[in-house]
Amino acid sequence: MRTTRTSFSSTLQALAKRTWRSESGGPSSRRGTRFFFTGATALLAALAKAETEGLLAEKLAYFAKPRLLMIDELGYLPFEKRSAHLFFQLVAKRFERGGHAHHD
Q: What is the tens place of the pLDDT at every residue in 4-57?
């Protein structure tokens, strides 16, 4: 089961990247559509590391910058209290700059 999930996740990531590159031209699009695709585990690990190093504000700004932030595996992972707090801070930071959340 783990192999299937990893394969599906990899396929989804590749499809998302290919779709956004073809529709928006990727991060360096003429239209200026900037996006970032990451897995929830990698995102939360990066935020936790930044918090430990005293660089959380900078890392939140980094993830708040793209117009679109796509986070894979979000619905599959239970959040520990610290991870939930870090994720909330990211959502709040993106909301401050006018970002929107969308879930299908």
A: 444 555 665 665 555 555 444 444 444 566 788 899 999 999 999 999 999 999
Q: φ and ψ at 92, to 5 degrees? A: -65, -40
Distance CA 59, CA 68 (A): 16
Residues linked to residue 38 through DSSP beta bridges, in sequence order: 71
What's the CATH number for 2-96? 3.40.50.300
Dump strand ranges (E) for the chain.
35-39, 68-72
Alpha carbon distance 79, 41 (integer Å): 10
Here the tokens at position 16 are 């998302």
Choose among 21, 85, 75, 73: nearest CA to 42: 73
What are the structural domain ranges in the chain? 2-96
Letter for the amino acid at 56?
L
Q: What is this structure's pTM? A: 0.65
Confidence of residue 80 (pLDDT cuts 50, 70, 90): very high
